């Protein structure tokens, strides 16, 4: 709308519409600001929301994906009767519950889902990480499935940061990744220096800081650093970060990046939101009993030599298979219903994580086909202020009351205040800093000089600062010099007078 050509076009159109009128006007007066939101947005939102509610009312199996980080996004994911996968974003909902406890989190999720009619139950599945609050929140209402990307991210995080690892539940042993952790530490310091010293513009590509809350954060940081490795010396010259750069072995850095490439590929494969990916996630299964182990080993060796092409596996459409064969056998019809539920489950909760840059409020994200995927982080985000809470009480006509034990406790007790006053009367010319030291020596109570001054002021004992001598200006110095030069031999003159 700011373009001159567009304004000229609008002016011509308006002049044609008002051909009979010859009055002059400015086109900028009738054009909206470029950032103005269309008036039809609310109408379109209400229209499509009703359509989505009608779809949700007819669903028998679905997956809810919830993620609580810096905002709340909710996505709905389900498979239709003809085995077509659909994913909808229900919305971004500000987290306005009283607290982030398990009970309030469950109530908030159920409240959001109630608007679209889905209800959590024992037949619904939840994809979540291992955060204690989320485990407790979705332990009884539904069936929980771990987020695959979260597990992979934790593995790389422990490899680069943990000095010890669990050999079992009660004992630890050395991590065994000292070389990789040393390289990772040097890379992290260099990246932090470049970004904080405003030298990023000298590089052809922006370095990426490490973040524990970002999936594959370590992989991304190290990989971009390797790409910019040859361009860094001119940026780091004459700085302490050059020592970290010289301590990095390029061959070891390449080996680490090459080793981490499959991790990034797996995370990308498990983060698809428009394709099935749960079947790519394999869980560790215990070994069979001894009675069946020989049969299992025989079958595994028997079919392991059959030639196959791995590229053909990518072309297999699981939903199309069930759509074609659901009526072939009677048992497949029952399995097809179960497959429709399972295929709706994502392998990770990254469907809603990609939307986190939109809003900056504390929220919980939900996505739908029968799974709730959730995550809690300590990222800074604004919560409800005291004014917001009081406004809600006024709207609901609730009584307002003062919270007990408000404010921070005083650093001194009444006994400490009396001791400070006693020392002040004893040493009236001493400063508050000296009084603070005397109080520390007398009873071991440490109070700052400012606190001592405030306590004495509360007891009507004001402090006075000694008046400083007047400042000698250049004129004063000049007059003193002239007087000294005139009376240079004053002792001899005084003898003559006598």
TrEMBL record:
Q: Which GO terms describe its molecular function?
A: DNA binding; protein dimerization activity
List, for all copies, the residue spans of the domain called HAT C-terminal dimerisation. 304-363
Tell me which InterPro entries the record gives: HATC_C_dom, RNaseH-like_sf, Transposase_Tc1-like, Vacuolar_transposase_reg
Q: Name one GO cellular component term.
A: nucleus
Any one Gene Ontology biological process term?
A: DNA integration
Q: Which Pfam families match?
A: Dimer_Tnp_hAT, HTH_Tnp_Tc3_2
In this chain the Transposase Tc1-like domain maps to 418-488
**Protein name from the UniProt record:** Transposase
Q: Which organism is it from?
A: Rotaria socialis
């Amino acid at each position: 709308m700011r373009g001159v050509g567009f304004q000229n076009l609008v002016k011509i159109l308006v002049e044609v519409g008002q051909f009979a009128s010859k009055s002059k006007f400015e086109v900028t007066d009738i054009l909206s600001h470029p950032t103005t939101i269309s008036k039809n947005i609310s109408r379109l939102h209400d229209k499509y929301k009703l359509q989505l509610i009608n779809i949700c009312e007819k669903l028998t199996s679905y997956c809810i994906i919830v993620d609580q980080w810096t905002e709340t996004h909710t996505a709905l994911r389900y498979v239709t009767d003809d085995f077509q996968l659909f994913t909808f974003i229900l919305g971004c909902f500000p987290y306005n519950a009283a607290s982030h406890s398990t009970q309030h989190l469950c109530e908030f999720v159920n409240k959001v889902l109630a608007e679209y009619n889905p209800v959590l139950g024992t037949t619904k599945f939840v994809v979540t990480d291992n955060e204690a609050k989320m485990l407790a929140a979705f332990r009884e209402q539904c069936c929980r499935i771990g987020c695959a990307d979260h597990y992979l991210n934790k593995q790389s995080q422990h490899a680069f940061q943990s000095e010890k690892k669990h050999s079992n539940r009660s004992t630890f042993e050395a991590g065994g990744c000292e070389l990789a952790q040393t390289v990772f530490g040097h890379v992290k310091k260099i990246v932090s220096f470049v970004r904080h010293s405003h030298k990023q513009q000298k590089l052809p590509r922006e370095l990426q800081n490490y973040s524990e809350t970002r999936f594959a954060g370590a992989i991304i940081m190290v990989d971009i650093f390797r790409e910019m490795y040859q361009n860094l010396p001119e940026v780091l010259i004459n700085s302490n970060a050059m020592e970290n750069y010289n301590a990095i072995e390029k061959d070891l850095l390449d080996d680490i990046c090459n080793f981490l490439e499959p991790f990034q590929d797996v995370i990308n494969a498990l983060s698809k939101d428009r394709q099935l990916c749960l079947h790519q996630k394999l869980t560790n299964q215990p070994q069979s009993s001894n009675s069946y182990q020989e049969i299992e080993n025989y079958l595994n060796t028997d079919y392991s030599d059959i030639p196959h092409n791995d590229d053909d596996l990518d072309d297999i459409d699981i939903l199309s298979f069930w759509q074609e064969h659901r009526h072939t056998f009677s048992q497949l019809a029952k399995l097809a219903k179960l497959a429709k539920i399972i295929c709706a489950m994502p392998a990770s909760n990254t469907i809603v994580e990609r939307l986190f840059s939109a809003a900056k409020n504390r929220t919980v994200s939900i996505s739908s086909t029968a799974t709730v995927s959730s995550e809690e982080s300590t990222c800074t985000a604004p919560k409800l202020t005291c004014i917001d809470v009081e406004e809600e009480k006024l709207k609901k006509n609730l009584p307002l009351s003062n919270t007990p034990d408000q404010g921070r406790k005083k650093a001194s007790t009444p006994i400490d205040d009396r001791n400070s006053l006693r020392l002040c009367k004893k040493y009236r010319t001493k400063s508050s800093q000296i009084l603070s030291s005397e109080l520390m020596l007398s009873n071991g109570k440490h109070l700052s000089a400012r606190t001592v001054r405030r306590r004495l002021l509360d007891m009507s004992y004001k402090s006075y600062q000694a008046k400083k001598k007047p400042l000698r200006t250049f004129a004063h110095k000049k007059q003193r010099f002239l007087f000294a030069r005139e009376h240079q031999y004053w002792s001899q003159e005084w003898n003559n007078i006598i």
